[in-house]
Amino acid sequence: MTLEDKIQSALHDAFDPSYLEVVNESRQHAGHNPEAAATGQTHFRIRIASDKFTGVNRVASHRAVNDALAFAFDEGLHALAIEIRK
Known about the structure:
Number of helices: 4
CATH class: Alpha Beta
Helix content: 25-40%
CATH topology: GMP Synthetase, Chain A, domain 3
């Protein structure tokens, strides 16, 4: 299972999203950390909508996503862009 697959699975489990897009942007950043970039799984953009974000401010929503994906940083994730959609 790739890191991208694990990220998708973790977000589905944590948020039961009505919309989820996980975009691998690693190729755009390959030059600045060649060792980490070897996996091709270092930079992701998350676009997510979920009822679990209703009434939750932007900072708390981003923290919740980061908490759900904390494991991924130990597996090579270097950067995460988060877009919460309502």
